[in-house]
Amino acid sequence: LQLWAQSEVERNNPETLEDVYVVAERLADTQHKSYTNALKPSKKPDHGGKK
């Protein structure tokens, strides 16, 4: 595991396989959102725009 993921798992202290699955899903969702947000174009106009 990457260090941040390992820290997150330890912080959540999963006790059952179901708990581990929930933590893993949350980590995967967080990673996916971070990746897709990095690829999204900025919604701010780069020319100042009119209000």
What this model shows, in words?
With 51 residues, this protein is an all-alpha fold. The protein has a domain at 7-35. The chain has helices spanning 3-12, 17-39. The protein is elongated, with a radius of gyration of 17 Å. The protein starts with a helix and ends in a 12-residue tail after the last helix. 0% of the residues are buried. The mean pLDDT is 74.
Concise structural overview:
Helix content is 65%, strand content 0%. With 51 residues, the chain is mostly helical.
In percent, how much strand structure appears in the residues?
Answer: under 5%
Structural class: mainly alpha
- The count of helical stretches stands at 2
Mass-distribution shape: elongated
Mean pLDDT: 74
Helical content stands at 55-70%
The major pleated sheet works out as: none
List low-pLDDT spans: none
According to DSSP, the number of beta strands is 0
Distance between the ends: 47 Å
Rg over C-alpha atoms, rounded to the nearest angstrom: 17 Å
**Run of helices and strands:** HH
Structural descriptors:
65% helix; mainly alpha; 51 residues
In terms of topology, how is this protein built?
Blueprint: H1 3-12, H2 17-39
